[in-house]
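Ticket reopened. Same input as before:
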Amino acid sequence: EIVLTQSPTTMAASPGEKVTLTCRASSSVSYMHWYQQRSGASPKLWIYETSKLASGVPNRFSGSGSGTSYSLTINSMETEDAATYYCQQGSSYPLTFGSGTKLEIK
Amino acid sequence: EVKLLESGGGLVQPGGSMRLSCAASGFTFTDFYMNWIRQPAGKAPEWLGFIRNKANGYTTEYNPSVKGRFTISRDNTQNMLYLQMNTLRAEDTATYYCARKGGARYWYFDFWGPGTMVTVSS
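Engineering reply: fixed in the latest deploy. New output:
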């Protein structure tokens, strides 16, 4: 099973600040996918195939990475970006998720 | 508009069984792999398994963590997805989601339902 480790576990950012969340895989994966989950809601696909933004996702978000190291970046933090973000790999079964990064607004 | 709506959750005793349902609409159901994913409160999601589409014979794959206890099925005439859960344990307590496989080639979940909560407790 591929274990995904996200860091940091929790962080707070000020409006306008640049934010980078990381996801490290225990083995190399072809792509990484990211989900945003707001409190009380189901996860939403946010970034897929490492760098493609899902429908409706603002272009201040971007994704990058390869092999075992991936990241999600917010160019300029906004209040509505406060949520938990999960990475997910689809390269091997069982499909697995990271433990999440909770992003708060300062 | 793609919609997924789970139902059937509730309270069940340890060792009991429960069947969850997911009603799908807004897309050609038989074209897509469908998944079940669960999420204990305050924890990360856990993929449970999927059932393939018509082109791939509606076969199934499971996470080893639930293989042998959980069974995924679908009724393509009603656009319904099911999760039969047997021998339930306290650690099965979670919100259960159905989700559609998004990519043709790569594994991600492009639509999720709102979830149904399952509590396993005496």
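The first strand of chain B starts at residue 3 and ends at 7. Chain B touches chain A at residues 39, 43-47, 61, 63-65, 97, 102-103, 106-115 (CB under 8 Å). Please confirm and we'll close it.
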